[in-house]
Amino acid sequence: MREEVIVRVGAKVLAPFIITFGLYVHFHGDYSPGGGFQAGVILAAAIALLALVYGLDAVQRVVTPRFVRACAALGVIIFAGVGVVTMILGHNYLGYNALAHDPKHGQHYGILGVELGVLVTVFGVMVSVFYLFAGRRGRTQ
Amino acid sequence: MSAHLPVLQVVVPLLAAPFCLFLRRGRAAWGLAVLASLASWVIALALLRRVLAEGVLSYAIGDWVPPIGIEYRVDVVNAWVLLIVSTIGAAVSLYAGTSVEREVEAPRIPLFYAAYLLCLSGLLGITITGDVFNVFVFLEISSLSAYALIALGQARRALTSAFRYLIMGSVGATFIVIGIGLLYVMTGTLNMADLAQLLPGVWDSNTVKVAYGFLAVGFCLKLALFPLHLWLPNAYTYAPSAVTAFMASTATKVAVYMLLRFFLSIFGAPFSFGVMALDRVLLPLALVAIVSMSLVAVFQVNAKRLLAYSSVAQIGYMILGLSFATATGLTATVLHLFNHALMKGALFMALGCVMYRVGSVHINAMAGLGRRMPWTMGAFVVGGLSLVGVPLTVGFVSKWYLILAALERGWWPVAVLVLLASLLALVYVWRVVEVAYFREFPGEEETREAPWTLLGPTWALVALNLYFGIDAARTADIARRAAEVLMAGIGS
User: Fold this and answer.
1) What is the distance in angstroms between the Cα of B59 and the nearest Cα belonging to chain A?
2) Residues 6+ positions from B105 with CB-CB distance below 8 Å
3) A50 CA to chain B: closest CA distance, Å?
4) SS3 assignment, position A121
5) Alpha-helix residue ranges (DSSP H) falling in B299-441
6) Is residue A141 part of a domain?
7) Is the pTM of this model over 0.90?
């Protein structure tokens, strides 16, 4: 597909919009359908699209497998870390009210933080899975 | 800080797991895993002490009050299981340092410890939570990481056995979540204590009975009760030694705990034994498991697989205790959870030492090792005696309570059967001992004793086998209190 101009330009134009839409789904996750999981999958889809059009090697130079794996771990740290922060602030584990004076804002920040962790992990795992399958050199080739 | 102990029990290994991935050196990841496992062991000890002194502890996650939010609820029963899991977790993590370096490729070692800590936190989470859906979530965390751990074994067959376990385990987990879903439909709550209060009102509905059936099959798959045990022997045989020692002493125990918690604490003994006849369903299965699996173990040529079949038989003992439907029987079950973890942990660790030096755990490969590796085989002998149930070991204490419970019900044929099965255990342990002590060492090459980094944790468990075999007052007392809590149900 590397020779098809329309596909190449199309993918290049679409990718930033897909990523923006992913972030939209994340930040509106607490008021409308969506959230970290869906957002992470959408972001991973942008990477998958670029890899399909420009080739796996080109994409892996930008989004390295090491970075992707680090994302998978980092998300868990963010999620559990939010809980630890609320605990240090004197509330129970994941008691978001600790995060702001107004409990309403506290809940908002808390859920955004936790969902950010979900987003990062899901993105990392999805792209890792894609890399693993796309990088397999089949016996028939 | 001490108010947060229930949640820290799970969070410490959970948070340590991703950090293992950032430490690129295997040794550093191991250090972190040891620290986290020891910390959760200390927390479990502190929790048990507090529960024994003060009674039930409750922790509201996210400050949401219990029936609505997720509650972590610690009573004598799960404080006891937490201690079992974290004790084995700490011992295995110390042991893993040397063993895993030999058996797992270097780049994968940080991944190994990440999966190990996730598995540990999953098992601790299942045990500590007071919310049935949370049980399912942690069950998936522990199972998925367990499949990965087993697949890290050296032999290519580790992959197929992990895959088989994945299929069977997922079927089990699906059945469990279907059961939980049906309970939620009938009561509108997921909190265990709340469920226990609301369920008697809907006992008559078929939905609850179907939920009970789904849960029963799901748990029995997870704990490898006799006809549903097929995933277990291969998984234990081909996993890395440290993983086998960990899984054999914790995963099935936690599954038994889930069974006890759901069917006695939530549904209640009157429903389980009176309406659903759980005891009459489990009794024949347990007896068949004990006898047939001991017989199968006798004919194995691989020592690890031999012990794996023995584990299925030992699970039969635990279920047998439950199927007496008495407080004494339950005491035997709860006691055997702990005792079996100690003996199987020690035995599989001793086999890991053999694997480290000899590179094989086939019985024939162990010829003459009694001289060459006296401490390793010594640990195996003591662990084996404990498995048989010789006095002064924990195995004897378990058998004692089981037979006591059988005689209390007047089921003397069952008592005789338990004693006969102990003789079978003697036969299969003897097969290994005979080869190790009474056959000449075949090779010329220098096979030395395993390093102390492996022997230390192994003998620590052996020492616990002997200590709690001689002084069983404490363990038996806790087990009796746990049995009373289980019989009374969660509401009281």
Assistant:
1) 8
2) none
3) 27
4) helix
5) 303-323, 327-358, 369-372, 374-388, 394-408, 412-438
6) no
7) yes
Contact B285, B225 (CB under 8 A): yes
For A74, the domain range is 5-134
Spatial distance between the Cα atoms of B165 and B149, rounded to a whole number of angstroms: 12
Q: What are phi and psi of B282, to 5 degrees?
A: -80, -30
Residues 6+ apart with CB under 8 A from A104: none
- pLDDT bin (cut points 50, 70, 90) of residue A140 is very low
Report yes or no: B320 and B346 within 8 Å, Cβ to Cβ. Answer: no
Q: Are B415 and B491 in contact (CB under 8 A)?
A: no
Out of A74, A80, A94, the one facing B14 most closely (by C-beta) is A80
**Cα distance between residue B407 and residue B151, in whole Å:** 44
Q: What is the number of structural domains in chain A?
A: 1
Nearest-10 Cα torsion for B419, B421, B427, B428: -140
> Measured between CB atoms, which of B15, B18, B62 is closest to A94?
B62
User: A32: buried, middle or exposed (CB in 10 Å: 19+, 13-18, 0-12)?
Assistant: exposed
> Would residue A139 count as lying in a domain?
no
Return left, alpha or beta for B62; rule: phi > 0 is left, psi -120 to 50 is alpha, else beta. Answer: left
Q: Residue B273: CB partners within 8 Å, gap ≥ 6?
A: B279, B325
Return the structure tokens found at B294.
């001991």
H or E segment to which residue B468 belongs: helix B452-470
Measure CA B17 to chain center. Answer: 21
How far is CA B414 from each of CA B272, B283, B285, B385, B407, rounded to the nearest angstrom? 21, 10, 13, 22, 9
Condensed to tens digits (0 to 9), the pLDDT of residues B165-207 reads 999 999 999 999 999 999 999 999 999 999 999 998 888 899 9
Q: How does pLDDT run across B117-164, given as a tens digit for each residue?
A: 999 999 999 999 999 999 999 999 999 999 999 999 888 899 999 999
Q: Output the CA angle B303-B305-B309, nearest 5 degrees.
A: 115
Q: Dihedral sign, CA of B293, B298, B299, B302? A: positive
C-alpha to C-alpha distance for B457 and B487, rounded to whole angstroms: 35
Euclidean distance between CA atoms B133 and B189, whole angstroms: 10
Interface with chain A: mutation pick from B2, B4, B11, B131, highest number of A CBs within 10 Å: B11
pLDDT tens, residue by residue, B304-359: 999 999 999 999 999 999 999 899 999 999 999 999 999 999 999 999 999 998 88
**Complex-level ipTM:** 0.90
Q: How far is CA A135 from CA A3, A52, A130, A138, in A?
A: 21, 12, 8, 9
